[in-house]
């Protein structure tokens, strides 16, 4: 096993990996940009190395600086987390060329699955179902029109190198096609330095369900079941769960989709942890979308339900160990739901809300797992993804997991920046959610059919009294308070004087 | 003590007296008043435990944001002696300033100075935390000043475009 591993990431996932390393008694090396000097990951790691200015292109995406940091600290392996360099085949190759183990699949597998069009071709050849469309990038408007007519509107334009909804457009009418193609292509160019866009049929009201796969370097490949990730906003996942409600009703679907995922992974010579994403329509037909060649953000729900530690398994596989686990050993117990806590303001169209996190009360108690990258006093930088933490709750059944999640959300308080916490309280209490009738348009539907929570005048009175009391307390206790900082200091001083 | 409390479009007047941790408050709104008695203890900086009868509330106050029972209220507390001064800030007739809602980077400027724009037309695209947001014209008009430059950083509240 490795003695020291560098974590080439930031935020909650860097913390998650560092925790895993510590449990395995492996030394951890964090990397940080100017914005992350004071991050939780840097505080928790055994060593931390500066890799550049705040913009990720000058720090977390710099292959040379990450490798220099690994060499300087004698790290034997690099865990890339998700995002940043995690699905960069050249980085995986550069690691191997430098004699450093990349904790993930081979550079070759990443390359073969990295472009969505290439992945679709591979899946089709391997016998996994795919959404009707073309695998080749479309070159111009005329070709796009021809293809769209053939497969029928509505169609979806997608960036070949894309992810996270960037470079993606729904097109319902032929006359909108050319403009959408231009927009999608320029957005793809900006986001991925690759303007290639392809077209596929839009599956109406689909579920987004993914299968976790795990393989060792000796050809053993298993799946760990599904995660339902249908609740998305702007193509970003918001709530994930295992099992999928549809699998609760039709357990055989898990095996069928698991088998399809293994076909794709097998054809790509895949090892380590990876995830095959599928769309599932209302008749439970499923279509392979793409494979994410890394640890997923939402891996905790799989860990809670299967009882496995995916980060530890990743490390064991990277160290060359054989999978001790066989497919028939994998069991799914109870139900887990994850909420992604973002620094964003649901009242202002989910606008990002960077800034200083002034107060924090974290939930705990039975069945509650919190993967967080923040602490009180932390300044959430505007340079990165707004994910603060993931709240994952496990219980013996789906209804119990929903109630437990609502309980934990009630305990959770984040002050100083806006978050979507209150929004989760509404979504999880929704009867459609409870009924498990999920699809990728669920949140947009939800927003249009429900109003923000009302409140009684009693509650407003309590809030108003606290606000007024606070304002006058402040003035009386601490003359000339200039900033939140000095208020904290003043409060601390008062404590000492008592 | 007396303070004016503004929340949403509402304006409440709050008068209260303190005895130890007991606070007796009268909340009045548009002439009608309701009295309430609560026990208030600051349990952490900016965090108040409030008991009204046996009912327990935890209330967090950070600047204008007040969180309790899973709700967030944006409340302005105003000293009545200074109230008239705070009332300004609205209604430069005909002129509309489009400001950056958050710190970030200006990705694209979609209009030119002097251009006529329609209601809902995109003006400037601002990016922060990997998300792009298009600032739209709240009403039809003409661009009389354009402070936004593509590629430049912006701070929250910075005026990007002025319409007339």
Question: Can I get a quick summary?
Answer:
Chain A has 498 residues and is α+β, with helices and mostly antiparallel strands. Chain A has 18 helices and 22 strands. Mean pLDDT of chain A is 92; it is low at 477-487 and 489-494.
Notes on the structure:
The complex is a heterodimer of chains A (498) and B (164). Chain A has helices at 11-23, 40-44, 63-73, 89-97, 107-114, 116-126, 141-151, 177-192, 245-249, 252-267, 299-306, 310-318, 398-411, 421-428, 431-434, 442-449, 457-477, 484-497; strands at 4-7, 27-33, 47-52, 77-79, 101-102, 155-159, 169-171, 197-201, 207-215, 221-233, 236-242, 272-280, 286-292, 335-342, 344-345, 351-352, 355-356, 359-361, 368-372, 379-380, 387-395, 413-415. With 498 residues, chain A is an alpha+beta fold. In chain A, strands 13-12-9-10-11-14-21-19 form an 8-stranded antiparallel beta sheet. In chain A, strands 3-2-1-4-5 form a 5-stranded parallel beta sheet. Chain A has a 3-stranded antiparallel beta sheet with strand order 7-6-8, with helices on one face. In chain A, strand 4 (77-79), helix 4 (89-97) and strand 5 form a beta-alpha-beta unit. In chain A, helix 4 (89-97) packs antiparallel against helix 5 and helix 13 (398-411) runs antiparallel to helix 14. Chain A is globular, with a radius of gyration of 24 Å. The termini of chain A are far apart. Residues 477-487 and 489-494 of chain A have low confidence and may be disordered. Chain B has one helix at residues 83-86; strands at residues 2-7, 10-19, 22-29, 32-44, 47-52, 55-62, 65-68, 71-78, 96-99, 104-109, 116-117, 122-128, 131-136, 141-146, 153-154, 159-163. Chain B is elongated and about 60 Å long. By secondary structure, chain B is mostly beta strands. In chain B, the strands form 3 sheets. Chain B has an 8-stranded antiparallel β-barrel. Helix content of chain B is 2%, strand content 62%. At the A-B interface, strand 16, helix 14, helix 17 and helix 18 of A face strand 1, strand 2, strand 3, strand 4 and strand 5 of B.
């Amino acid at each position: 096993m490795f003695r020291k591993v560098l974590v080439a990431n930031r935020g909650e996932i860097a913390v998650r990996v560092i925790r895993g390393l510590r449990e395995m008694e492996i030394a951890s090396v964090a990397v940080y940009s100017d914005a992350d000097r004071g991050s939780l990951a840097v505080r928790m790691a055994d060593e931390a190395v500066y890799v550049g200015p705040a913009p990720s292109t000058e720090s977390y995406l710099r292959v040379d600086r990450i490798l220099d940091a690994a060499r300087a600290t004698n790290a034997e392996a690099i865990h890339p987390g998700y995002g940043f360099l995690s699905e960069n085949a050249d980085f995986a190759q550069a690691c191997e060329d430098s004699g450093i183990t990349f904790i993930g699949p081979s550079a070759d597998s990443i390359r073969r699955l990295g472009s969505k069009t290439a992945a679709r071709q591979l899946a089709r050849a391997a016998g996994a179902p795919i959404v009707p469309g073309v695998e080749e990038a479309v070159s111009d408007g005329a070709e796009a029109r021809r293809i769209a007519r053939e497969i029928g509107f509505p169609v979806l334009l997608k960036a070949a190198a894309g992810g996270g909804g960037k470079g993606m457009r729904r097109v319902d009418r032929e006359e909108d096609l050319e403009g959408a193609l231009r927009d999608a292509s320029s957005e793809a160019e900006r986001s991925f330095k690759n303007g290639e866009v392809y077209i596929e049929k839009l599956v109406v009201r689909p579920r987004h369900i993914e299968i976790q796969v795990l393989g060792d370097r000796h050809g053993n490949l298993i799946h760990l079941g599904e995660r339902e990730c249908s609740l998305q906003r702007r193509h970003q996942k918001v709530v994930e769960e295992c099992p999928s409600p549809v699998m609760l009703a039709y357990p055989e679907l898990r095996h069928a989709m698991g088998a399809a995922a293994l076909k794709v992974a097998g054809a790509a010579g895949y090892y380590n942890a990876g995830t095959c994403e599928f769309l599932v329509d209302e008749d439970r037909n499923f279509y392979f979308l793409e494979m994410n060649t890394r640890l997923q953000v939402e891996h905790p729900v799989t860990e809670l339900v299967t009882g496995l530690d995916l980060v530890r398994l990743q490390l064991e596989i990277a160290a060359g160990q054989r999978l001790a686990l066989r497919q028939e050993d994998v069991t799914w117990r109870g139900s887990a739901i994850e909420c992604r806590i973002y620094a964003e303001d649901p009242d202002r169209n989910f606008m990002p809300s960077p800034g200083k996190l002034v107060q924090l009360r974290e939930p705990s108690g039975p069945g509650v797992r919190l993967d967080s990258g923040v602490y009180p006093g932390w300044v959430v930088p505007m340079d990165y993804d707004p994910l603060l933490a993931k709240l994952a709750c496990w219980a013996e059944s789906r209804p119990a997991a929903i109630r437990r999640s609502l309980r934990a959300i009630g305990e959770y308080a984040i002050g100083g920046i806006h978050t979507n916490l209150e929004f989760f309280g509404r979504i999880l209490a929704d009867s459609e959610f409870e009924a498990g009738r999920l699809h990728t348009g669920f949140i947009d539907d939800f927003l249009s059919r429900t109003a923000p929570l009302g409140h009684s005048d009693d509650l407003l009175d309590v809030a108003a009294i606290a606000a007024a009391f606070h304002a006058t307390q402040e003035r009386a206790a601490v003359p000339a308070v200039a900033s939140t900082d000095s208020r904290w200091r003043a409060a601390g001083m008062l404590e000492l004087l008592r | 003590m007396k303070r004016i409390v503004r929340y949403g479009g509402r304006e409440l007047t709050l008068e209260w007296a303190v005895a130890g941790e007991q606070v007796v408050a009268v909340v009045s709104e548009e002439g009608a008043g309701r009295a309430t008695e609560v026990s208030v203890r600051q349990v952490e900086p900016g965090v108040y435990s409030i008991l009204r009868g046996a009912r327990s509330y935890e209330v967090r106050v950070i600047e204008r944001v007040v969180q309790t029972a899973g709700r967030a209220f944006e409340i302005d507390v105003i000293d009545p002696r200074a109230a008239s001064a705070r009332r300004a800030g609205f209604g430069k007739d005909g002129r509309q300033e489009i400001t950056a809602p958050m710190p970030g980077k200006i990705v694209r400027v979609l209009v030119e100075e002097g251009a006529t724009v329609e209601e809902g037309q995109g003006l400037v695209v601002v990016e922060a935390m990997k998300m792009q947001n298009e600032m739209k014209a709240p009403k039809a008009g003409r661009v009389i000043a354009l402070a936004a430059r593509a590629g430049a950083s912006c701070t929250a509240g910075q005026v990007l475009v002025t319409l007339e």
